Amino acid sequence: MKFGILVFPGSNCDRDMQDALEKDLGVPVEMLWHKDSDLSHFNTEDCIVLPGGFSYGDYLRCGAIAKFSPMMQSVIEFANKGGKVLGVCNGFQILCESGLLPGALLQNANQQFICKNVFIKTDNSAALQIPIAHGEGRYFADATTLDHLQKNSQILFKYCDVNGNIGGAANPNGSTLDIAGICNDQRNVFGMMPHPERATSEALSNVDGKEIFKILGLLN
After folding, report:
1. 220 located within any domain
2. Is the N end or the C end of the chain the one with fewer CB atoms within 10 Å?
3. Is 134 a catalytic residue?
């Protein structure tokens, strides 16, 4: 498996993701400029990553402009063919704006930018410590969509405390149902607000991010 990382004007986590994937996880990476469109050298076993940052300065809704880039049109086609796509933070917002994932990311409940370590978990995992850094990370969807996500097991990660207790004060941004990450129906498109690429290095005394990539099936 190889990874392609999109680079938009305003991206600020693209090199963090590249460093984590190449140096910490030992996988090949290619940087993909947003104005290009060729993904013919990637197959459905590979993964395209939409990194965090402030694509186009977030001057409209977060991710609303990035969805129109030539490369994003190719990413949509790639995903529709079964290729793996991961969106982190701003990348998650772009996936929702482009229709690859349902719902929307709204302003944090406290109306402030939040940057700190939080804990998230799957239904079966222990609590994993992963950093967040966002101002519009509150996941929201209508009741019908939320019901579908729950019944189809598409809620990948929920915010929890260090002991794995979900919700309450452990939810940093007010996300509906404490949602930190979801996937599509076909389970090949993944979006999450926390940054696993910031938790893959022994130098940072936290490698829980590696477990995230394993859970998503993106790391052997």
Report:
1. no
2. C
3. no
pLDDT tens string 173-214? 999 999 999 999 999 999 999 999 999 999 999 999 999 999
Picking from 127, 138, 126, the residue whose alpha carbon sits closest to that of residue 179 is 138
32-36 average pLDDT score: 97
Contact 198, 209 (CB under 8 A): yes
Q: How far is CA 206 from the centre of its chain?
A: 19
Range of the domain at 91: 3-215
Identify the active-site residue in 47, 89, 160, 183.
89
The string of DSSP letters for 76-133 reads HHHHHTT-EEEEETHHHHHHHHTTSS-SEEE--TTSS-EEEEEEEE-SSSPPEEEEEE
Q: In the chain, how many domains are there?
A: 1
| Known catalytic membership, residue 89 | yes
136 assigned to active site:
no
SS3 for 46?
coil
pLDDT tens, residue by residue, 104-153: 999 999 999 999 999 999 998 899 999 999 999 999 999 999 999 999 99
